[in-house]
User: Fold this.
Amino acid sequence: MNCAPLYINGEFVETRERQNVLNPSTGKVIAQVFLASEKEIDLAVESARKAFDKGAWRGFSLKERKAVILRIAEGILNKAEELARIETESTGKPIKETTFMDVPSAAKTFEHAANNLENYLINETLAPAQEAGAVLLREPVGVVSLIIPWNYPLLIASWKLASALAAGNTVILKPSSITPLTAFELGKIIHEAGMPPGVVNIINASGAKSGQILCCDKRIDMVSFTGSLEVGKEILRYTSSSVKKLLLELGGKSASLVFADVDIETAVNSSLCSVFLNQGQMCTAMSRILVQEKIYDQFVASFVSKAKAIKLGLSDNHETQMGPLVTDSQRKKIIAYLEKAKTEGARILCGGKIPQDAELKNGYFFEPTVIGNVKPHMHIFKEEVFGPVAIVGSFSDSKEAVELANSSDFGLAACIWSKDLGLAEEVAKKINAGTIWINTYGMFYDQLPYGGFKQSGFGKELGRDGLLEYTRLKNIIIDHSNEGKPLVNYWYGF
Ligand code: NAD
Assistant:
């Protein structure tokens, strides 16, 4: 069976231990990946450190950096079909999503970072006073650990790698060991693009084993983490031990506010997509759909009937609209949430079960589920379920809509559906979330920063701000006083 090697210091490394990767549609082993022991994790850190301090990468001009990163984008496009297939087989995401979203978006992110790094990495020359000049230098931070989750393995790896590399850093990438395959494919593409050895290192290891070294070790300057709130808190503790720069992109419990003046079918169709895409395993899933009272019944009737019609199927089938959850344990977690919600008084309006079709029986499928009668104090209203589960509720006016949207510890994203753009913008300003979509959902643009507020984390991915996260600003002050004698020269009267 094919076993993917690690990528350390420009070499493909095999280790003693192997780990299976499953296809969530069938529960079958599709590949193996070598597991890094402490020795390989240490080698990866050391190689990134050396490549930053002594390697050729620091000497690359911005133009040369741009050229390598553009070749990575090209490499992704050349292997687009294969990458989409591997991502689908290992995550369970329908092939339509990986083909038309994940893979082309990953290539575009590298392209954008490459084409804009010269515009974004601007050094400034200032004259703060008559006797002084200053240069503000945008430098790479150094060695960055990139730790990513299983729900968008290729895309999130690309977001982080593109910005970190465009800014001139060296990195250790650790994909989730549930879905590591496309990260290692990306490693091959990066190698073929001519990246100097040690600039990109990719390891496969459990978080428990690698977390401490990737987040505490003094050879590492920054950690960029995307994942759950629980692990995010652990990472905060780790990085505090050696005071590292940290970018945290955590979970969400986002609200979609549907006002009564909308075209109901547009809002229903779009809301289905906003919560059920990728089986609801999206950090920005609009898992709380709040509808203005006047259209609540009509909206919910249509939403439930269309949710029931979503076509579950094997993820490699182009007709499939919803694939399996990523693991059986993720499915069990969702079932436990639903049981708790029922005991708290919520009502399942559709779904809530494992489908019985013979074709799906070995995979981790779960029906698209809509829950009503949910109150803000319930667990299901507050916590991230991370599956195909939508809560529907109502609001009377925009004040109540904002209060409900903000009654969450998270602050990742929100949607507003209304023909009244003035009202929608006013509401958007009052919502505590980092990204607000008005009359659309899920549109990410490489030019625009993305990142959460509150317990959804801090820092930005994408755009100029996302790239600048991976830089540090150095201030060089130069004295220009008369005859080279600065004020401090006279201080002691000598
Ligand atoms: P997770 O937190 O369990 O794991 C994320 C990564 O952290 C994995 O690579 C894992 O191996 C690693 N990890 C686990 N324990 C660790 C430790 N102690 N130290 C260091 N690393 C450790 O998350 P997940 O289940 O893979 O992904 C789902 C979560 O990710 C959801 O909460 C989702 O909202 C969040 N997410 C957020 C965004 C965003 O942009 N805000 C995007 C995608 C996913």
In short: Residues 95-120 form the longest helix (26 residues). The first strand starts at residue 3 and ends at 4. The pocket of nicotinamide-adenine-dinucleotide is lined by residues 147-152, 174, 176-177, 207-208, 211, 226-228, 231, 234-235, 249-252, 283, 384, 386, 412, 452, 456-457 (CB under 6 Å). The domain at 255-438 is CATH 3.40.309.10 (Aldehyde Dehydrogenase; Chain A, domain 2).
